[in-house]
Structure formats: C-alpha cells, structure tokens
Amino acid sequence: MVKLFCAIVGVAGSAFSVRVDESDSVDDLKVMIKARKPDTIKGEADKLQLFLAKTADGKWLPSNDPDVVAMRSGAVSEKVQNLLNGQIDPAEEIADVFVPAPQKKEIHVLVVVPEGAVGSASETSKMDQVVQEVHEIGMSTQR
Predict the structure, then answer these.
(1) Facing residues of 51 across strands?
(2) Which residues of 90-117 are buried (b: 16+ CB within 10 A; e: fewer)?
(3) Do 92 and 25 contact (CB within 8 A), yes or no?
(4) Is the CATH number of domain 2-142 3.30.470.10?
(5) Are strands 49-52 and 106-107 parallel, antiparallel or unpaired?
(6) 136, exposed or middle or buried, with CB in 10 Å at 0-12, 13-18, 19+?
(7) Confidence grade of residue 26 (pLDDT, cut at 50, 70, 90)
(8) 136 pLDDT band (50/70/90 cuts)?
(9) Helix, strand, or coil here: 73?
(10) How far is CA 15 from CA 8, 48, 90, 136, in A?
(11) What is the pLDDT of residues 75-129, one digit of tens each?
C-alpha cells in the first residue's frame, strides 16, 4: 500500500490522503479519490483529471509550499497551473507512475474536477452569485 496526498485544484480545502496498492491503476485511484470526497466531487470518477504534483526538477510538491498553502483557499497559482500538463494515463499502474516513492509532507496528485461536478463550496458560491444578481435586478427595477 502507498499513501498519496491529493489536492483538488480550484476548490478550497486541505489536501487529503488515499491509500492504494502499487498494483492498482490510476483509474482505481480516481475511484478512491471520488469515494474519499463524495460531498465535493459529483459525477463519474472517470471524468476526473489527475496530474502529478512534481516540480521541474522531478521532486514532489512540498505540502508547506506557498502555492500549496494558497490552494487551501481555492487559489490556483501560475506554478500550480504549469503542473497541469500531461494528464496521468488511467491505465498506468501506481508503482510505475509514483516514482520516486511518495514521502510525508508532499502533495502527489493534483485533481481537476470537470465543470459542474464540484459540490459544496462551489455550489454555495454559485448560489451567492444568483442571489446577488437577483438583488441587483430588484434594485434596478425599483429606481
């Protein structure tokens, strides 16, 4: 078993861990990620896009990196954006993808959830936008 730390890109919240066997596929990892975050991730697990959280020098992204800390509030820095190249092949085995072996205090997987498949905070923020728009329309018709 290997423990991987994941972060959902563009969604406020802390990184979370999932345990997978080295012989599992990346597709199995998607299923485990969705199962770990059912209130946050809606829709089918195979629609998730997974990216390695590796820096240009091949090292895993430290969990205390300022860009990772900013992700906790939903921010996506240019550094994180640049890591979203080359989606991990769902057919690959975990043992072949996660080299060097993941260590503590690192982020290993960046998760991108399809538009409309993010629950909780995203739904709340969309509802806030609708309420604001309705309020603005109401204010403009009163004038």
Answers:
(1) 110
(2) beeebeebbeeebeeebbbbbbbbeeee
(3) yes
(4) no
(5) unpaired
(6) exposed
(7) very high
(8) low
(9) coil
(10) 8, 16, 21, 36
(11) 999 999 999 998 999 999 999 999 888 899 999 999 999 876 555 444 444 444 5
